[in-house]
Amino acid sequence: MFDFCADPDLLEGGRWLSCYLTTPKHMMFYQSFLVVIVLMLITAPIALGVGFLGALATRSHLAPLRWLGRGYTSLVRGVPDIAFFLFVPLALDQGLEYLRHKAKCPDWTDAIRQGSDFVVCSEAKFPLSSTPQIWHELYGVALAIIAFAFVFGAFAAFVLSGAMNAVPRAQLETAEAYGMTRGQVTRRVLVPQMWTYALPGLSNLWMILIKATPLLFLLGVEDVVYWARELGGSKTSAYSYPHPDWRIWYFLALLVFYLLVTKLSEVGFARLTRRLSRGQATAHGMNEARKGAQA
Amino acid sequence: MNKIILSTALLALTASGALAQDVIRMGTEGQYPPYNMIGDSGEVEGFEIDLGNELCERAGLTCEWVINDWDSIIPNLVSGNYDTIIAGMSITAERDEVIDFTQDYYPPTGSIYIALEDGVDLEGGVVAAQTGTIQAGYVAETGATLLEFATPDETIAAVQNGEADAVFADKDFLLPYTESGELMVVGEEVPLGGGVGMGLRESDTELKAKFDAAITSMKEDGTLNTLLDEYFGEGTGTY
Question: What ipTM score was computed for the predicted complex, to two decimals?
Answer without folding.
Answer: 0.73
